[in-house]
Each structure stands twice: as structure tokens, then as C-alpha cells.
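Materials and Methods. Structural model of Pentatricopeptide repeat-containing protein. The 407-residue sequence of Pentatricopeptide repeat-containing protein from Thlaspi arvense was retrieved and submitted for structure prediction as follows.
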Amino acid sequence: MRRFTFPCLLRRRISVLPGGGYFLTAARLSSLTPISTTKPELSQQPITSVSLVDSIKSSQWHFVEQVSSKLTPSLVSTTLLSLVKTPDLALNFVNRIDLRRLDFSTQCLAIAVVSKLSSPKPALQLLKAIVTSRSSVRVILDELVFARERLGSKSTILFDFLVRCCCELKMVDETLECFYLMKEKGFDPKTETCNSILSLLSRLNRIESAWVFYADMYRMEIKSNIYTYNIMINVLCKEGKLKKAKEVLRIMESFGVKPNIVTYNTLVQGYSLEGRIEGARMIIKEMKSKGFKPDLQTYNPILSWMCSEGRASEVLKEMKELGLVPNSVSYNILIRGCSNKGDLETAFAYRDEMMKEGFTPTFYTYNTLIHGLFMENKIEAAEILIREIREKEEGERRRQMSCLRKL
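The predicted structure was written out as C-alpha cells:
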């Protein structure tokens, strides 16, 4: 067998892979065919954590992808632990292997490492995959606790992410279970995490559960911030308890928490939904005195009620005086109000004005108009509008297909 001297190795430009022996560089593989028959390719070399980490740090992702099916949970875990200080590289590594084929412990370790990134999105995305495939939040939390210990971390952000993940998936029972498990294990949830839970309960109209949870926050001495108070003011408004909602505003101010425009807009919406427009105007007057300028979120709820009363012009005039230009939500409110009252001519006029101002009518817009036409027994006009919508849909589909073909 031919023996290679050191100069010969230099001429052949053979590289050394740390911990993995000699291999031919990919760029010169084709010119050294005789040698490649006696030296295995990189993907055929025994894979070690050292060689894998070196490949990751040198961005040899083609190699990582090539050997991904051969990576064991033990090897992946060791590699992830070596990338704790570079979570961006850990994320790139995780994105190039199939975590689903690895064991649960390794999956949770990957999430723990990725959670160190400044953005929570990658960790939340990985968590969602686990939460939707596992039946027990307790099992997931226990495994995340173990992963945290392996990293030697004292941060509780990983558990806050788990709660937030359940909130985004609208899994109320799992969200609450996870929160109380955190407390059971001695981990203090952040105020922001509690706000995510309160917001979920409010959005789903779980009013009683929201109050029970808020009481537990108080008992656990978890401080409320402006977002907490805004959520609870919204809960009270949904219950129609407007006087108590205003009392919360005074309480938060007494604690040194300054209201923001969302606070006032929430109260305005609450009064408007009850038809108490003068009360809504009093809130607007107060917010102006505190230096806040009313916006479209302030006036759209008032517009909605006044439109049903046939007094939309009053609100539009007031908005114009403040320099507020109606948006697509405003126009949809006006179209709905006119359609419900049978004033289809004005409804279609608002549709045309909406398009003139650069707002594209939505399915909600057209559904409102079609419903109004049917209610007025104008079946033929409704069918014409339906055909118009279908033609626009077909035109948009063709445009998208044309764009795809150009790519």
C-alpha cells in the first residue's frame, strides 16, 4: 500500500477534523478521486460531540443535515450543552435536525437552551409542538425543571414561556394548572405571565375565573401593573359594572400607577356598549385633561352606538374637528348601521367612499351589504354583489398564480 509522507499530505490538501481523523475537503474531492476511495467521506466518519460542535461553529450545516438522522439523543444533548453560551447557534442546529425523533428529555433541553435568546418566539414555537403532543402539563414542567438544572440556571423564564404558550393555544385549564404548579414548586411567576392569563380569561369571557385568579395574584403578593389594571377594568366593563371600573381607575392612581390611553379607551367602550354616551363623553373629557388625545379606538365604539341611533353624523363631525380620519373599522361600522336600518343607498355610498380612501372592503363589509339586500328583498342585487365578490376572488387568485410563475 502506498505510504503518504507529510509533504504529500500537504500537496493533497488534506484537512484535519478535530477528534475525527483525516478527511478530504469537499471543494477538492472531485480532483482526488483515487484518494477518496481509500478515505471515507466526512459523513462516514464516527460522529463525536467535538466534531459536531466544530462543524456548527464553522457553519458546516450541510454536514449537520447529512448526519442528522444518525444523531443519538445523548450526542444531541451533549452538543446542546456545549452551545449554551451561543443560543443562536443552538437554534440553527435544532432547525437542521428532526427533534421529533429524539426523546422528550432532549427536546426539553433544546427548548431550555433556545430560551436564552433575546426573542421568545423560537422557544414558544418549540414549546407549542410539545404541548400539543403531550397530555400532561405536569410532565412537561417537570422535564423543563430538569433541563434547567442541567444548564445550571436560576432563571424561571422557561416556565413563564410554558404558561404563555398555553395561553396562546387558548388552553385555559392547562394554563391555570401550569401557573399553580409553578407556585407549588416555589417558582414566582412574573406579573407579565399573570397578565397573559388574565387577558386569556377576559377574551374568552371567563369572568368568574378571572376574578378568582386576580384574587390569587393578590394573595400571592404578585404586584399589578398598568396592564393588569387595564384588563380588570375591561372585565368590569364586560360585566356592566361601570362605576366599579371607574373606582379601579382611582385605586390604581392612588397606588402611583398612571393610566394610559388604553385605560380610558376601555372605559369609553364600556360606556358606549351600555348606550351611556354622555358617560363616555365625560371619560373623553377627563382623558383630554390628563393630556391624552382621543384616537379612532376612542371614537369607534361611540360611532357604533350613535350609528344605530341614526346620529352617526354627530360623531363624524366631532372626529373631523379632532383631525381623525375614519379607518376601515369606522367604515364597516357605518355600513353595518345603515344596512341594519334599511338605508342601503347610504351604506353603498360609504362602501364607495371607503374604497376611495384606499381601504379594501373585507368579507365582513360584503356580508353586511348582502345581508342588508336580502332583508330588503333585493335578491337580484344581492346575487350581482355575490358574483362581483367571486370575480374579485378569482382575479386575485390568478394574480397570485402569475406572481408564483414569475418566481
